[in-house]
């Protein structure tokens, strides 16, 4: 698994890199600030990003926000701070795990594996939602086109639907495309 790490302290970054490599992970990028972490995440497309909270230029939570919004990778915050305000900000940013320092090397694999698994589940759900939205939109267009055919040709609903269906097969176009053409023709 490919990992990006971000911490403004080079010693901590080196320790974390060695821990991860000893656990069999491939550290593909290292950043010293949040902006660099975002840029490297975009560039390297890692499987998971581990970021410190307190960093210059852009803090880890702001970086998590961007990485999450762009669906680049799941993020784990690794920090010495566990106050409520930071945890709430981290949750709102979409972080997948929150590890408080000091931690043991054995704490990393479960967090990484769970974060990656949750990220993949979220991606799958987002794809399903997009598909459902597209199908709903197509259904609305077909219903509108049926209404137009029913009014113009004095058809019942099933006859209007069947006309759209036949036209779709004859033209080798989707029912949505046929419905859009009917609606467009009506508006002209």
Automatic annotation (TrEMBL):
Q: Does the keyword Chaperone apply?
A: no
Residues in domain Response regulatory? 2-116
Which segments constitute the ANTAR domain? 122-183
GO BP annotation list? phosphorelay signal transduction system
Keyword annotations from UniProtKB, A to Z: Phosphoprotein
**What's one Pfam family the UniProt record gives for this protein?**
ANTAR
Organism, by scientific name, is Fimbriimonas ginsengisoli Gsoil 348
Q: Which SMART domains match?
A: ANTAR, REC
* Record-listed 4-aspartylphosphate modification sites: 52
Q: Does the keyword Flavoprotein apply?
A: no
Q: Which PROSITE patterns does the entry link to? A: ANTAR, RESPONSE_REGULATORY
Xref: InterPro entries: ANTAR, CheY-like_superfamily, Sig_transdc_resp-reg_antiterm, Sig_transdc_resp-reg_receiver, ST_Response_Regulator, WH-like_DNA-bd_sf
**GO MF annotations, alphabetized:** RNA binding
The molecule here is called: Two-component system, regulatory protein
């Amino acid at each position: 698994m490919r990992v990006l790490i971000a911490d403004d302290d080079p010693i901590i970054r080196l320790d974390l890199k060695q821990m991860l490599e000893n656990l069999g992970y491939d550290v593909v990028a290292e950043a010293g600030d949040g902006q660099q972490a975002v840029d490297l995440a975009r560039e390297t497309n890692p499987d998971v990003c581990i970021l410190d909270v307190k960093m210059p230029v852009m803090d880890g939570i702001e970086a998590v926000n961007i990485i999450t919004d762009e669906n680049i990778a799941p993020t784990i915050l690794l920090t010495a701070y566990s106050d409520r305000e930071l945890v709430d900000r981290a949750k709102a940013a979409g972080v997948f795990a929150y590890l408080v320092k000091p931690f043991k090397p054995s704490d990393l694999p479960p967090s990484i594996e769970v974060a990656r698994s949750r990220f993949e589940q979220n991606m799958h759900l987002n794809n399903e939602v997009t598909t459902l939205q597209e199908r709903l939109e197509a259904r609305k267009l077909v219903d509108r086109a049926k209404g137009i055919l029913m009014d113009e040709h004095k058809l019942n609903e099933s006859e209007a639907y069947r006309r759209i269906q036949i036209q779709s097969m004859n033209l080798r176009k989707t029912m949505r495309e046929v419905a859009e053409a009917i609606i467009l023709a009506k508006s002209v």
